[in-house]
Amino acid sequence: MHLMPLRPILITPSILSADLAHLQDEVSTIEKHADWLQVDVMDGHFVPNLSFGAPVVQCLQTSLPLDIHLMVTNPADRIDEFLVLGVKNITFHAEAVQGTADRRDLIRRIHQGKATAGIALNPETPVAAIDDALHELDLVLILSVHPGYSGQAFLPDALEKVRSLRSRLPDLMIQMDGGITVENAGLCIEAGADNLVAASAVFGAPDRAKAIAELRGTHNE
């Protein structure tokens, strides 16, 4: 158990570590325990890996709000295919959309599609890189690994970025993704994160309900 902040802590399992041959069954094991469900969309260009697209989301039956993390070079060309499916949130990368006007236009389009909008920052990208869009965002995703593959080791330098961002914007949702485990979740929450994405820490656990509770810091309360 770790010290809980006043903000509610959301746990967002990523299907990247689920058994894809039994994806629907995998999602059913976390349905009553998780808060959001993340779908990592990779194009083989922005990151070296390939993953899911809108057809997978369309076939997925879940009551969990869907969080789309676009690790793609052309997010402006990809958002509509997810907006029509009624997703909760779409996050694109600061490194993929660098112009202020382009960022604001993309955020506006996401909002018009009735979803919340987030920007993700790779480990080497400072928070200052998105100062032009911060006050229009619903969420900032701090990557604590280099994007593209599940199971990487957590990069603790990401915690300082979270602290800096939280001190500037107390009400902003700050999501962390990459190497999140029961052992470091408390550090993430104490730094100011209120939405933790976990892949192998959830789908690799024999008891997913317990894993989610431990990540949230509520197990055995």
Task: Name its key features.
221 residues; alpha/beta; TIM Barrel; eight-stranded parallel β-sheet; 8 helices; 8 strands; 29% helix; 19% strand; globular
Structure, explained:
The protein has 221 residues and is α/β, with parallel strands linked by helices. 29% of the residues lie in helices and 19% in strands. The protein has one domain: TIM Barrel. The chain has 8 helices and 8 strands, in the order E-H-E-H-E-H-E-H-E-E-H-E-H-E-H-H. It has an 8-stranded parallel sheet with strand order 1-8-7-6-5-4-3-2. It is globular.
Q: Find the structural class using helix and strand composition.
A: alpha/beta
Mind summarizing the main beta sheet? 8 strands, parallel
Reported by name, the CATH topology is: TIM Barrel
The share of residues in extended strands comes to 15-25%
Give the C-alpha Rg: 16 Å
Count every helix, treating DSSP H or I runs of 4 or more residues as helices. 8
CATH architecture: Alpha-Beta Barrel
Average pLDDT figure = 92
- The end-to-end distance, rounded to whole angstroms, is 7 Å
Helix-strand pattern: EHEHEHEHEEHEHEHH
Overall number of domains: 1
DSSP strand tally:
8
Tell me the CATH superfamily. Answer: Aldolase class I
Shape: globular
